[in-house]
Structure formats: structure tokens, C-alpha cells
Amino acid sequence: MEKRKPKEPGTHYAKKSPTRGGARPNAGRKPGSGNRITVESLMAEIELHAGRTYAEVLAHNYVGAISRSDWNGVRDYDKAFMNKLIAERLEVAVDSTEDAIAARQTAFAAALARLNEVAQAAK
Fold this sequence. Notes:
Blueprint: H1 39-50, H2 54-67, H3 71-89, H4 98-122
Helix pairs in contact: 2-3
């Protein structure tokens, strides 16, 4: 049997690849290409194959995690639900009138005075 001669170093590939990174011709997504999967289409597919809404699937899985005593799973569901609920329910009212600013300054001064009293009493 005839032994093959090893190739010379650097001749394994027809085209030498760049060694320092950077952009390469025709690499990456083409300009204007859209996402193939949208959230709406994904939710519709889940609901179609599950035969119930995504919220019902989540609720069923959450109850299953509780019944299996999968406390890590329960914790993850709790976090996900609370993040969603808090994000939807959180409202921040910003009042920057002169009266509101004066009220905040007064409250801050009173809190600072109280803090100084506590510090003096601790000495």
C-alpha cells in the first residue's frame, strides 16, 4: 500500500481565510432582510398546537411545577409573572411644580433633622 505524502503547510484550503477577524465579503444578513419568526406568529403556532391559549399553557405548567415540588421552576415562573405584572401596572407620576419641590425640600430637611437627633442621642 502506498503512503500518502503530507500536504505542505498552508495548502489545505483553496482560499486563505483572514487571520485578524473583521468583515468578510457576503457575510451576515442581507440588508432589508426581516425576521423570519415574529412573536405574533410564534404565539399563534403555540396556541394552534397546544389547543389552548398561551396564558392557559403557562398556568398549567406553573401548577405542574408546584405539584412536582419543582421549587426552582416555581421561582422562575413567579419572577416571570411578577416582572410582567409590575411592568404593566407600574405608573410613575412626576410632579415638578414649585409647590411640589418646596414640599420635598421641607420633607428632606425634616428627615435630616430627625437623623441628626438620632445621631446625637446615640453618642
